[in-house]
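hey can u check if this looks right to u? its 435 residues, i copy pasted from the old doc so theres a chance i mangled smth
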Amino acid sequence: MSVKIDSVCESSYGAKAGILGGDELVSINGNEIFDVLDYRFYVQAKKLSIVLLRNGEEFKTNIRKSDEYADIGLEFSTYLMDKQHACKNKCVFCFVDQMPKGMRDTLYFKDDDSRMSFLFGNYITLTGLCEREVQRIIDMHISPINISVHTMNPKLRVEMMKNPHAGEVLSILDRLSENEIDMNTQLVLCPGINDGDELRFSLEELSKLYPSVKSIAAVPVGLTKYRDGLYPLRTYTKEEAANVIDIIDEFNAHFAYYNGGQILAYASDEFYLLAERELPGADYYGEFSQLDNGVGMCALLKDEFINALEQESSREVKKNITIATGYAAFNLLSELSKMAEEKFPGLSVDVIKIKNNFFGDTVTVAGLITGQDFKEQLKSFALGEKVLIPRVSLRNEGDRFLDDITLDELSKYLETPVFSVENDGYKLLDMMIND
């Protein structure tokens, strides 16, 4: 195995050692290089013995660095130095399968790449790992790993993920635990399938891997209106969502009794909203290890916003602004806006809830609101001096919605500046009261 070098930075260690663009990197200090994880791990040494291929012929070079963490200047055509690994499953609840046609290609790619889990926090199912990759996680002590478990029942996991190997790979969890690899796990729950007693079983089995299993997040299945021909699923009722919370609370009470008060499992904010239950406070969520799963986002935002308010002196703020968000966050943002209006006379904040017409009204989270829905539903309002929208509605680069409408296009259409705000209470208050 070798990885082609795209270019070499001028005056770098690599350039001085005679390495050229087009050379193929084979190994560093006797360790084969397959991708970015191998490269970044093994390049961290003061003395490097490097084997390369040039025009099919092997040659060797040595590098001595003054700092073991210094880069040697090799550039590759992709960040991973390899193609991103696609998912091999056909999960009955897969959100990508529920996307309409005609969107940008990247939205149809099903990621299941262990490297992306470590580097960017993505979740993996374990079904795409080969033995070399499992052993590499252990040898390099790559931690934490985020894992989509869904169920600890091997037979049910096969049925849900439509992969004959989905059950047997659960044994990898034991290997990772034995080697003290930290894991954050998630269960995408589907009504009547992996909740109820199956949820109790999964929680109990995962708890046996504590403290390697650091957290368990339970998230309700997300369903769009584009499900023709797909497995019959439905959304959670109020009573069913409440039952999920009760099962998790019951489990946590038992687990905490034997583990010094530690909480291990969390229902996502969406379950509390569906059940019309009061959300826990910020202290409940510890280190907020499952924020990307929508676990504790509301509590953290509220806690930060209140702290930010307390640090500000009351003063007149003559501003009229609009906040546009999904149904899920509407009540919380309305509550926070009223707090700000009380503290700052003259401030007027109009919070507008945006219905998800694009994906269907069962989708209530802000991260899946399209630019078109913002355009159509905001155009009839007096928007004031500016509009604030959730940062999660945009792609990672922060400029474009799922339907490829840009933030600039939305601002021009509404004839009002539109700004995106992260899930950060301090930044939200700053955007409310300052220019």
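The chain has three domains: 3-75, 96-294, 302-433.
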